[in-house]
Design brief:
The structure is a homodimer of 342-residue chains. Chain A is 45% helix and 16% strand. Chain A has helices at 20-32, 43-51, 75-81, 86-95, 108-118, 160-178, 199-210, 237-259, 266-286, 312-327, 330-341, and strands spanning 7-11, 37-41, 60-64, 99-104, 129-135, 146-150, 184-188, 215-220, 232-234, 294-297, 302-305. Chain A has two domains: 1-122 and 298-334, Isopropylmalate Dehydrogenase (3-Layer(aba) Sandwich); 126-289, 3-Layer(aba) Sandwich (Isopropylmalate Dehydrogenase), CATH 3.40.718. The termini of chain A are far apart. The first copy, chain A, has 342 residues and is α/β, with parallel strands linked by helices. The interface between A and B is large, with 49 and 49 residues.
């Protein structure tokens, strides 16, 4: 087994297309990169899927876990009862240092709860944030085509200092992953006026603006989310979750236009082919399942959450994002951002 | 002057295309309906615009107001200082009974503040809600192609009883305007589990579910907003504002695809023409500026807020919505819904 870099633990049983898509994604990665993965889950099923595809056995290890937390299972009860779930077993590999990061496409709420239980919070951090990436327009050269949105559901309400922490951690992560020196941080709100949105958002605005380590660009409105105005967008979990799902569903409309082409008449097919470049902008919104996942921030270890609908390509991308984050020590950058602030 | 029905006061100076678009919209209405309008604003400018278009003078009155509240002006200060603003003058016509409703496409926050000042809150109502309509898919015959979303910015945070009031008022309004016997009311949240989204949303869910006068269908997620699942969607103002603007901007992408056709090559034009029916679903999202406006709910009088970007058609539609609401006594229905609940 090659071990130039610590391995990535992959929850083989997490996601709507698990374990098949997860195992295939990891198999692809094993052929085309030097990344070592540990697939955690039902070892017999994992091996049987591997036997049907091409893979490099030197890059893949399997660790058995006998239980699975379902994608729509009530998370608290599941994490409490299923101690041998693939998610928990994979997290323990990370906690013990056997692996450097976890990738899971499974139940997001369970991943947040289990990660808080099995891993250590960064010193000074009060709440973890679940981040997501989404495509937006790029308004200057070198800007990532993806923006980071957090929190999208790990929290319900956040205090202003918690939103500032999310900003520091999100910017540190974006700096490492997107190679942008000073990611532009914005606060999602109902107006540009710093006083808008109530006392908490106004206080968060002031604290973000005063923070020397942040490139804070002010409030961002709903209609600006798809612009290149910000690289890191901050909000409470309920709001982030609703915005993310809405972005995804509206993007899906554009995809529906194209995937159903086969069932439509020739006029439609001709139109679609000619229009292809035009709908790209919208289609990108729904394609983001393939963008490789985003971190749970606030923990001493890296956890990358891939989209629950991840296919093999999405899983491969998420594993590559995790490996990049490990190689460039995103965990240390994120920890340093918060410690520097505390 | 015909006066089969009380007149509609129209803020001639409100909106990005005011006063031209507003006056033209009212002129159109005067030719094709029996609705009487009172245009409030700079009387010389209003008359000069009217002189350039066709209109029926029997259906239009002008009331002069010497000041204008700008579309992006700080609302509190503007409402306090500009006592002769067209918005305030128009509201006073409603408060005094000269007009039965107000239509304005101007500064939304100023409209809410001024309406709270010049008009009376319904007994038992604690907060007014600014509603908006947006297009969504229809999943059964007779369902309105528009859903009502509230609050979209009059409030910041709402208590559970306030969200229940919004539900009662929104359903009463939708019942009158959409002619749906029992509008389906839903709570915007991050999951279907009634306990999700924090204590306030969980309590609101319980109170909505227990309310005998409401057809409550549970939580609605971000990705379900464009479905036909609910006719009235409830949320706090910051969230509603962000969702509304996001819906609008993503829809605008689809419109951009078509309005810029002239600048594109023939392939693009051909594709666009063939695709027309396919992009309708998305384009509808951005066209909603023309849907005629939505009410500020919680007041003893009718105030219809039209989109700030309203053109003449949008204004005409908003005036017709206001006239329909007056004719069918939406104000009484809304008041009765809350009193019945108190």
């Amino acid at each position: 087994m090659l071990a130039a870099m610590p391995a990535i633990a992959v929850d083989a049983m997490g996601g709507q297309h698990a374990p098949e898509a997860v195992v295939q994604g990891v198999a692809d990665v094993s052929l085309h990169t030097g990344i070592e993965c540990v697939l955690v889950g039902d070892s017999a099923r994992i091996q049987s899927i591997l036997d049907g595809v091409a893979y490099n056995p030197e890059h893949i290890d399997i660790v058995h876990a006998g239980e699975v937390i379902g994608i729509d299972e009530e998370p608290r009860e599941a994490v409490r009862r299923k101690r041998d779930a693939s998610l928990l077993a994979a997290l323990r590999l990370v906690a013990r240092g056997r692996c450097a990061a976890l990738v899971t496409a499974g139940n997001a709420a369970a991943a947040v709860l289990a990660a808080r239980e099995e891993l250590t919070l960064l010193p000074g951090v009060r709440q973890v944030a679940l981040a997501s990436v989404y495509p937006r327009n790029v308004d200057h050269p070198g800007q990532d085509r993806l923006a980071l949105l957090l929190d999208v559901g790990a929290t319900v309400r956040c205090t202003p200092p918690e939103l500032v922490q999310f900003g520091l951690m999100g910017a540190a992560y974006a700096r490492v992953i997107s190679k942008v020196e000073a990611p532009r941080v914005a606060l999602l709100n109902m107006g540009h006026d710093p006083a808008q949105g109530g006392a908490d958002l106004a206080t968060a605005h002031r604290q973000l603006a005063e923070h020397a380590d942040l490139h804070f660009v002010g409030n961002i409105l709903g209609n600006e989310l798809t612009s290149g105005r910000a690289d890191v967008v901050l909000c409470e979990g309920v709001l982030g979750n609703i915005v993310l799902r809405l972005l995804e569903s509206v993007g899906s409309m554009a995809v529906d236009l194209s995937v159903s082409t086969a069932q439509r008449n020739w006029r439609w097919r001709a139109g679609m082919a000619i229009m292809a470049s035009g709908v790209d902008q919208l289609r990108a919104l729904a394609d983001y399942a393939s963008y490789g996942g985003a971190p749970i921030l606030g923990l001493a270890h890296l956890v990358i959450k891939a989209h629950r609908r991840s296919n093999a390509l999405s899983i491969a991308n998420a594993v590559k994002v995790a490996a990049k984050a490990v190689r460039d020590d995103a965990a240390r950058a994120v920890a340093g951002a918060v410690v520097g602030a505390g």
